[in-house]
Design a protein that fits this description.
Elements: E1 5-9, H1 19-23, E2 28-30, E3 37-39, H2 49-58, E4 64-68, E5 73-75
Antiparallel strand pairs: 1-4, 2-3, 4-5
Length: about 90
């Protein structure tokens, strides 16, 4: 069975960082109007899965979700701790 990957984007969450377009330019682009993510291929071929999943993981706004239907694994950015008002990352 061939691997199937489905991508979705949330343009409301997108901050226009461009990591997706840099990492997987065959799958993602940026809008000329607002810099937001443009999904070029919602079901990329297997040769592009790794780059698409990496792009999802790198998205600082967690605006991209990649679902591998073979393994049922979902990839999206893991939010980092937010900084305090003083600009320091809180320690546990």
């Amino acid at each position: 069975m061939a691997r199937t990957l489905t991508l979705t984007v949330d343009r409301e969450r997108c901050v226009g960082a461009g990591m997706c377009a840099l990492t997987a330019p065959e799958v993602f682009d940026q809008s000329d109007e607002d810099g937001g993510v443009v999904l070029l291929d919602a079901a990329p071929p297997p040769a592009r899965h790794a780059a698409a999943q990496l792009a999802a993981g790198l998205c600082p706004a967690a605006a991209i979700t990649a679902i591998d239907h073979t393994t049922h694994h979902t990839t999206h950015h893991q939010q980092q701790p937010t900084s305090s008002p003083e600009g320091r990352i809180p320690h546990e």
